[in-house]
Amino acid sequence: MKRRSVYLDAPGRVSVHEETLPEIAPGQVLVKTLLSAVSSGSELLFYRGEAPEDLPVDATIPALNHPLAYPLKYGYAAVGRVVDTGQLVFAFNPHEDYFLAAPDELVPIPDAVPAEQAVFLANLQTALNFLVDGRPKAGESVAVLGQGVPGLLTTALLAEQGLKKLVTFDRHELRRTHSLKLGAHASLDPDGHGAWLKFDELIGKRRPEEGADLVFELSGNPEALNRALACAACAGRVVIGSWYGRKPVSLELGGRFHRSRLRMINSQVSSLCAKINSSMADCLKLCLGKAGELDLPGLISHRFPVARAAAAYELLDERPGEALQVVFTYE
Prior knowledge:
Blueprint: E1 2-10, E2 13-20, E3 29-38, H1 42-47, E4 78-82, E5 88-91, E6 98-101, E7 106-108, H2 115-118, H3 121-134, E8 141-145, H4 149-158, E9 165-169, H5 173-181, E10 186-188, H6 195-203, E11 212-217, H7 224-230, E12 232-240, H8 256-259, E13 263-266, H9 272-275, H10 280-291, E14 300-305, H11 309-318, E15 325-329
Parallel strand pairs: 8-9, 8-11, 9-10, 11-12, 12-13, 14-15
Antiparallel strand pairs: 1-2, 3-4, 3-6, 3-15, 4-5, 5-7
Helix pairs in contact: 3-4, 3-10
């Protein structure tokens, strides 16, 4: 049996390979993929050749637990049906139209939940992880830098926390518009004229030591981390959810950071389930329940047949302001 798989052949080069599907081993099931979501953050690091080479592609995902080497299959948000039973499932699996998995690697999805909703489970898990690490409290002022899909979902979860003020930042108007729809009190262009003065006004900053109680840096841009530190209040928390890969980060730690007792928190989703004393399946079921409360399909801006995978990566790389969630479809 043949399958089509998306490969990053080399940095900047994408193709779809037809390959022979391995034989089904004992304890495995065959899944026919319906949709898979493209991550505009981590996947672009591999697409651009900016991912660290001294780590496995992802040691926490069986399908990706191998050294980084091109040609490379990637992706971690697939929704499909088990061929034998018709059960709709979610899996952390690369972009391909058929794949094999152990049943405990699959999250059953109720038929009442559309695939366009379930495909967001990985990003919802990431957003939940940011809140677990940041611990927002009712009445706090919070800033979120970066409104890609993980940033937008983080904003949606934060909007339920009874915050005094929730202000987001992104360079792209499309993302800022959706940020407001998901509950941000204001969404600003970080490069816009007077944006940071406007932020000070919104949170009521009157003295240098004042600012946001909690800041999330989710832009993927190393330069944004200094901005995140600058807008945090004395003793504020700065959650770093971005994965910068091999991009260098230059931090200004000798001034206000030193005097203001700021706390930087590295947030990485792979250990989320342990932190909340939950199995991976139970953690994803929690996210599935949350998915039903949000208009997630409304965040899908582009659907590409898997045969046009290269065009999808080109869009995200060259015209990011036009896209939100990009998904591959499989006939």
